[in-house]
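Order emerges. For instance:

***
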Amino acid sequence: MLIKTHAVVLHSFKYGETQLITDLLTEELGRLSFINNIPRSARGKVKKQFFQPLTLLEIEFDYRSKNRLQRIRDVRMAYPFSTIPFDAAKLSLSLFMAEFLSYATRDEQKNLALYKYVETSIRWLDSARRQFANFHLVFMIRLSRFLGFYPNLDNDQRGCFFDLRNGCFTTVLPLHPDFLTAEETSKISLLMRMTPDTMHLFAMSRHERNRCAEIVLFFYRLHIPNFPELKSFEVLKELFG
């Protein structure tokens, strides 16, 4: 079956001397993996440079449901970046987001709303001219809505606790260790009310931002099986001092 779809590059690596394996989040079929020959000349359609993390593509391929690895027939950039590859902070954010999405969407089937959210967020980051230091925090917490475990904001009030296992605010101390203190709960409550267009209005120190990121990543580990520690997070922690 011939499929034409938009896609986001999450991860790619060289396989042998002549092939490239790539993980994509596609608009039409969710997560798919592809294997393609690396062209030896500039005339080849499937160029290696198309498969940098978070690149937005339009691809065409003959989908075979029994194959673990598909083959791309044609590809082009759907949205050439204007700033992400040339801005060190945005590039670090993009590498972190790509690794994060690789695990957060690992088993996703077609989910049009999720795909549109991811693509729109990437475009926003590329076009951002104002402060975007909180972008990854807003992106991660809002993505959980499309994955089915966005926190329940009922009972969110001053002095309450946030139950990470059950994803809810509570005035009663949970009987397990996976909850936030009232002080940290207030920070997460604030984060849940940020949007990309308002997040520059909320000042955070680097320590506060990194702690929020640690909390959100732990929240994902509680709700997605085998969600690991992210290697790119160590680099990201040094940004936005």
Remarks:
- The CA atoms of residues 164 and 218 lie 8 Å apart.
- The first strand starts at residue 2 and ends at 15.
- The longest helix spans residues 206-223.
- Residues 84-236 form a domain with the de novo design (two linked rop proteins) fold (CATH 1.20.1440.120).
